Amino acid sequence: MKKIVKYVILDILKNKIIIAYAFFLLLISFSVFSLENNPTKGLLSLITIVLIIVPLISIIFSTIYVYNASEFIELMVSQPIRRSGLWLSIFAGLSIALMLAFLIGVGIPIMLFHFSQEGLVLIISGLALTLVFVSIALLASVYVRDKAKGIGVAILLWLYFALIFDSLVLFLLFQFADYPMEKAMIVFASLNPVDLARIMLLLKLDISAMMGYTQAVFRQFFGSGFGMVYSSAILLMWMVIPTLLSLRRFVKKDL
Phi and psi of 146, rounded to 5°? Predict the structure, then answer.
């Protein structure tokens, strides 16, 4: 299992897309901190990168990698290796490689320009979203055999979590404006890992202007301490549950 993880990590780190991803994040991060006199403003500018770009690259690259590695996976399955161990090794290799790219591109500039609790929360949020969307990518790729359809599903999932979800929440709020929706907002927030990461950031950075209605209600009910613990626990579930579902499917799947 360790050898497979090592092989996947080395194979991904040599990929030009991952190198370009790390360089792009590094360039953007240094540019943001260099242009802003206040490091905190630079940190705020990176929130969009973490919430939009990181999930996009994580889910699309992971999906494409699994499809491109189909021959390697079939070869490994024919060996005396447990399928569960193989699948978890692929997940670990993808996650570690993408997190390393994120740490190089965003973690290093934050450590250099704004080493603080807020900066650490931003780094942790980016790492968490990387794990979540790698997990979702594996789930999508193991259920959809066709590569083109699988990539399409991955893009649609990213669009849903990053853009469409908040629009649906706002639509429901307008439709049921006459009813108390505070508790429902807590449930809605738990259904989107991007919103949960945004909650973690905004609770720590204390930026009410950037908070949507969902996050404002969440903060009002739970406060910074309990809200951070709750959102962290739900994010962990978003990492574990899709991974277990994809693992169960892969173990039983006829390759």
Answer: -75, 130
| Cα 187 off chain centre by | 19
- Model confidence pLDDT, tens digit, residues 108-149: 988 888 787 878 888 998 999 999 999 999 999 999 888 889
Q: How far apart are CA 193 and CA 50, in angstroms?
A: 12
Contact call for residues 109 and 33 (beta carbons, < 8 A) = yes
CA–CA separation, 175 and 172 (whole Å): 5
Using CA of residue 241, residue 244, residue 246, residue 252, what is the dihedral sign? negative
Q: Please name the residues in contact with 193: beta carbons below 8 A apart, sequence gap of 6 or more.
A: 55, 128, 129, 132, 133, 161, 234, 235, 238
Is 0.85 surpassed by the pTM of this model?
yes
Instruction: Give the integer Cα–Cα distance in Å for 44 and 167.
Output: 23
DSSP output for 120-145: HHHHHHHHHHHHHHHHHHHHHHHH--
Which tokens in the block code for residue 33? 């901190």
Residues 231-254 pLDDT 10s: 788 889 999 999 999 999 998 876
> What DSSP letter does each residue of 100-124 carry, written as one string?
HHHIIIIIHHHHHH--SHHHHHHHH
